[in-house]
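[recover] target loaded
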């Protein structure tokens, strides 16, 4: 049986047409976008087109887009860059316990510098309460950062409602939209966010490329200093070939977006139905509604997640878990721990995430392989 990739929430395959555009840019144009000669102007045109595409994808204007090396850098710039540039107005930050580590780790680093950070709980579906955000607000709160869609469970957060809450408050509002970007219709004005993070490799674009949307009034302390690129907000010569790929990936993502959403929802529903038909004992983690269509996080009672992932990989099924091995011990997903505490299910959960090329036949093959692996593991237990 051919290998099946079911880890699209981690990264998506590079679209062949994106690779072609990137290769053509690499071999045909040696110019630096900051140069004024024809080669430089041609490179600048590519960068400008990518910026227009990025802005259009979220209802913004090109001047508010900062290109970065990906979602992690964009999150760091939004959290640490904003906090350091605005600490004269306050040193209080609000975030949630289910954020990506690209937000949580900068927040922890800011705590070491004397900032006060509140990490808000979520309910068992993995969704934060707007009322809890409101209760945590203080006069000296300068930043609220809440992810749009969770990368482990697919839970969608009430971003527009939080944005509306903050309209009369000094706090800036940032959302990590890496998982929702390219799948959902995003508009920064409707969401009422001041900063938004996006990444290209979740939409069949190149790894190592992303951007941060920043409203006009937002001040950031740059993490990189040097030239005047990105309006002095992110120094360094732009990676023109990557940005050509970003531009192409953005165009592709906008094509048949609604149909692709429905297809992914159908694949996820088919997968859950297949598990039920095979009488596999499982629990779904995360909400049944208000969720992303391509992520299914499943707990298999009494099954250790690490050997399960290894056995699935040997069977040709590529999936992942939020767990991490540290010095030989398994640390459960911080997202599931925030949802369920120390419940045993946090040690037996696997994330299946599907993509635009996932077929109905592959879904059935995944379920069949999973059934065989679980039966084999049960016999060895």
């Amino acid at each position: 049986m051919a290998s099946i990739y079911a880890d699209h929430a981690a990264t998506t395959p590079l679209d062949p047409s994106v690779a072609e555009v990137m290769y053509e840019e690499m071999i045909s144009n040696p110019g630096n976008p900051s140069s004024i000669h024809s080669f430089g102007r041609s490179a600048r045109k590519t960068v400008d087109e990518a910026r227009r595409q990025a802005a259009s994808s979220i209802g913004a204007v090109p001047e508010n887009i900062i290109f970065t090396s990906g979602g992690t850098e964009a999150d760091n710039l939004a959290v640490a860059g904003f906090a350091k540039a605005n600490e004269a107005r306050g040193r209080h930050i609000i975030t949630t316990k289910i954020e990506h580590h690209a937000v949580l780790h900068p927040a922890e680093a800011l705590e070491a510098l004397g900032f006060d950070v509140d990490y808000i709980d979520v309910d068992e579906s993995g969704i934060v309460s707007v009322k809890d955000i409101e209760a945590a607000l203080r006069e000296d709160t300068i930043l609220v950062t809440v992810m749009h869609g969770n990368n482990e469970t697919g839970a969608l957060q009430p971003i527009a409602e939080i944005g509306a809450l903050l309209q009369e408050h000094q706090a800036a509002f940032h959302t990590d939209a890496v998982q929702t970007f390219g799948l959902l219709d995003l508009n920064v004005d409707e969401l009422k966010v001041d900063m938004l993070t996006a990444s290209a490799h979740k939409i069949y674009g190149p790894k190592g490329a992303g951007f941060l949307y920043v409203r006009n009034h937002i001040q950031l302390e740059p993490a990189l200093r040097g030239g005047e690129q990105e309006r002095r907000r992110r120094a360094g010569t732009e990676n023109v070939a990557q940005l050509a790929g970003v531009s192409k990936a953005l165009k592709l993502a906008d094509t048949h977006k609604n149909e692709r959403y429905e297809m992914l929802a159908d694949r996820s529903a088919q997968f859950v139905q297949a598990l039920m038909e095979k009488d596999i004992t499982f629990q779904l983690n995360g909400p049944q509604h208000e969720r992303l269509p391509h992520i299914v996080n499943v707990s298999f009672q009494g099954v250790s997640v690490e050997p399960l992932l290894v056995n699935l990989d040997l069977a040709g099924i590529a999936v992942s878990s939020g767990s991490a091995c540290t010095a030989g011990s398994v640390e459960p997903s911080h997202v599931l721990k925030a949802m369920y505490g120390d419940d045993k299910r946090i040690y037996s959960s696997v994330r299946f995430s599907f993509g635009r090329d996932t077929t109905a036949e592959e879904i059935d093959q995944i379920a069949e392989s999973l059934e065989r692996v679980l039966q084999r593991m049960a016999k060895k237990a």
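[recover] notes: The longest helix spans residues 257-277.
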